User: Fold this.
Amino acid sequence: MKKLLCAAGVTLALAMSAGAYADKIAVVNVGEIFQKMPAREAVAKQLESEFKSRATELQNLEKDLQSRVEKLRRDGATMKQSEREKQEKELMAKRDQFAEKAQKFEEDNRRRQMEERNKILSRIQDSIKSVAAKEGYDVVIDANAVAYAKDSVDITSKVQKQVK
Assistant:
């Protein structure tokens, strides 16, 4: 809560100091624009198809591991000691392989999502600059960083039209 209040205070101070030097200030809701972009859904589908084969492979590995664990649990008491140890070693190797692949999958997926997110945010930023230049705004502040702003200074809809 203290961090939020501190951030709000700093933002207010910056906005007031910017207001002292700027003739026209606008606000824009970047989060709303990002959520409403059709490109975001298309990118999500693209990433899903890009990672689908790896996700399926991981699911199959997980099912295989579960069946091996269940088999070892069920038949372990009746197995020879050497056979049970062999099964346990194989199971541990498969579990390590699964964990490594799952971690790599998560890292790659997260990296690609960030790349695509940054591309979309860059398009939004370019649109904000374009609208601000066309409308003659000196400063544009994210609506989430402002406690109050008149609707007349909100350029979210204009940026949204431009970014499509």
